[in-house]
Amino acid sequence: MMTRRLNDTGSAIIGALFILLMMGLIGVAAIQTSESDMNIADNYKSELRSFYTAEAGAELTFAVLRDSLFWRDGFTEQEFKGGHYTTVISDSLTDSLLADTILIRSTGMRSDAISIVEVKLAPTAPFRWAAFADDYFKLCGGTSTDSYDSDAGSYAMTHLDEQGDVGSNGHIKLCGSADIEGDVSTSSPGDLEVNGGADFHDSTSVAPPINLRLITQSQLDYALANTRAPGGLSGQFSYNNGSHDLRVNPGKTMTLASGVYYFGDIDLKGTVELDPGASVQIYVVGDVSLNAQADINTLGAPRDFMIFSVGSSFTINGGAEVHATLYAPTTEFKLTGGADLYGAFLTKEAQDAGGSSFHYDRSLKDLKLPGTIQKVAWQEL
Length: 381
What we know:
Blueprint (H helix, E strand, L loop, with lengths): L1 H66 L7 E6 L2 E8 L11 E9 L2 E10 L8 E9 L4 E5 L6 H4 L7 E3 L2 E4 L4 E2 L2 E4 L5 E3 L7 E3 L12 H10 L6 E3 L2 E2 L6 E3 L4 E4 L2 E5 L2 E3 L2 E4 L5 E5 L3 E3 L4 E2 L8 E5 L3 E5 L3 E16 L3 E13 L4 E5 L12 E7 L1
Parallel strand pairs: 5-7, 5-8, 5-26, 6-9, 6-27, 7-10, 8-11, 10-12, 15-18, 16-19, 17-20, 18-21, 19-22, 20-23, 21-24, 22-25, 23-25, 24-25, 25-26, 26-27
Antiparallel strand pairs: 1-2, 2-3, 3-4, 4-28, 13-16, 14-15
């Protein structure tokens, strides 16, 4: 009996030791697994931080480019919350395949982790309506819209009673006998007001909001530094070298050569033409007044006569005829007495109380806006 008890005791001790050994092995494995998980977590944290560092570099570079479109310096080992980023900017000057595209490559470093983010930028193409007003749009008294295609032929040859769309981010009021040969859209629910016999194709008050980029000071500075006025102007006109004000009197004709122009106030009562084959970009910091006798670029395409205004008002009176693209996101646009407008017109506010006609140039749909950029693609490399 004693021998059997000793054998049972020995077996129990061996079993206990085996269990302790297994528990020890499990503990060691758990510790190793825990350390591995901690290393993985630390690596992931470092990678995540390096990614956010790279993204921060791309965002700052984009922000600087919006205010200074010709800046190409980028950033070198810029410190950011315990890490740093380096950004490189490429465009058609360094890569002919980029055309009008700008490429930002941002490399973020945090501890031993490296992340690379690439952002592709391109000019905006905002001319998708006959007329668009950011805050408020009123069309009454026989206002009408339609469309044509200046690339395909004359207005008479390519005219369509469609695609003369109008839009706003705010309130739209249609009244009287307004005839909109296109759609009406606002991104402000319930802000489409229709009175009288106004007519249109389709409408919505839940359209996606449109972000109209402001004209930057760097654009204005560039225009002032490179203006062709007065050397690029010919004919009969009045120009003030100090204020940059421009005037063309009734019965007079002024012709512009290709290039960029910078003006203060503009008062046009006569005819404005372009040199054959010319294309102009006009920056206006004052107010614009086009009177009944004004004929603006009537023989040319709207894409060749681009107006960028930061003035408070742009007024067209009487029977003026204008072929242009107008980008004026902070300007009030007023029409009185009926005018013929060919092209596309984007403003802060627009009011037509007297039967003007907007003829949308369909060729402007994909026209890129100089001096503006937006993100069109993003990827992590």
